[in-house]
Amino acid sequence: MRLFMKPETFLMASALLCALLGLGYPLSCEVCTGSGPTCSGSVKTCDADQDSCVVIVAETSKKSYRSVNTHKGCIKSSACSTGILSITVGPENYMVSNTHCCQSDGCNHDAVPAPQNNRTENGLQCPTCIAPFKETCSSTKEVLCVGQETHCVAFVGKVQAGIKFATQGCATKNTCHTKPGTLVPSASHTYVISQVNCLPGPQPSDKAK
Ligand SMILES: *[C@@H]1O[C@H](CO)[C@@H](O)[C@H](O)[C@H]1NC(C)=O
């Protein structure tokens, strides 16, 4: 008796089995992380629970070091926050990202437009703080909101190595609905946003009063 099937037969049989069981055949997506408004890498097979491909372009600034970075890869749809996020924690400490998710093999190949980054103060301000290694922080300062940032947020994130941080600042309205697991690439590492809470409305800034 032959114990092994030919590879073609095995592939067909597993595709059929997946179809019968209602499981998607594993998705494959382009995978890369790099500086600039796009990156390119090879196409890789996703983990079984990763049902989307993602492309994220982000402009981040940390202590006035500003950069644009791109990440492409596999992601769970439940962690894909499509569209533009904008969060400001300090005048030179912010992240703005544009995310696109899709569900077919290699569909994240094309670049997405870098988010428009409007840094014009809009007359609102929010409490701000940053606390590494923590899940909450309490604010003693205010940050001036810019562009379309009309909400105050508190969020918990991780740098991809797993180090937690808590922060508060200004954000756009859709940032309140950021899904846990949302990624934001920066120059040094990719941030993972674990939890976002929108706080009661922002106050007119002291400048605007
Ligand atoms: C930038 O943001 C300011 C403040 O919200 C707003 O008045 C202005 O129209 C925005 N500019 C653009 C080009 O969207």
From TrEMBL:
InterPro entries associated with the record: CNF-like_PLA2_Inhibitor (IPR050918), LY6_UPA_recep-like (IPR016054), PLipase_A2_inh_N (IPR004126), Snake_toxin-like_sf (IPR045860)
SMART domains reported for this sequence: LU (SM00134)
Keywords: Disulfide bond, Phospholipase A2 inhibitor, Secreted, Signal
Keyword Secreted among record annotations: yes
SUPFAM superfamilies: Snake toxin-like
Subcellular location, record wording: Secreted
GO MF, one annotated term: phospholipase A2 inhibitor activity
Signal peptide per UniProt: 1-26
One GO CC term on file: extracellular region
Domain (UPAR/Ly6): residue spans on this chain: 27-118
Domain of life per record: Eukaryota
Major place of residence: secreted
Claim: Disulfide bond is one of the keywords in the record: yes
Protein family: Belongs to the CNF-like-inhibitor family.
Name assigned to this protein: Phospholipase A2 inhibitor and Ly6/PLAUR domain-containing protein
Organism from which the protein derives: Vicugna pacos (Alpaca)
Gene behind the chain: PINLYP
